[in-house]
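Database export, one record per block. Field names are fixed; values are copied verbatim from the stored entry.
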Amino acid sequence: MLLGVLSLDFAIAGVLPRLEARTLAGGSIVLPEDAHGSFALLVFGFTRGSREWTSAWGRRSVQDCKPVNHCQDYAIAVLEDVPRLLRSIVVSGIRAGIPAERQGYFLTLFHDSDAWKKFVGYREPDDAYLVLLDADGNVRWRWHGIFNDANYAIFQQELREIGVSRINELHCCRARRGTPA
């Protein structure tokens, strides 16, 4: 577990703090370790209202990106504020809306939401928060906002700047305000 050690020092250093979470498929993921050797896009959602934008990023990801071993994308629902008695119901509802082949990449996180909010630069509750990691788990880019073509173009430009020549070479993608986090 993260154990509340997430701090601004990690953000400044550009390293993703250890993130342990359950997948909708029932497995466990530890990041950045499980993505080592691949680029990884993490799409965080902190509220039910963020579902629209995190889902839009996910649809674009599936639509535009081909599965290869160079990049992975993860949707992360931060659910610490959901009352314990309702968590299984909420997770079941989320699972019902995610295709089976994507459930291993959809993470549920029930701890350290304040620390993760600080890490992603949380400002707007219903935005999607994106973090792009390089193959060593270093944060290369952070961003938050809604999904639209202009915001997606920002993401594509960032990929080009870090040396990814074509978006379809990756199995990742995911983007109102267009504000860097």
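Remark 1: The domain at 8-180 is CATH 3.40.30.10 (Glutaredoxin).
Remark 2: Residues 23 and 76 are 9 Å apart (CA to CA).
End of record.
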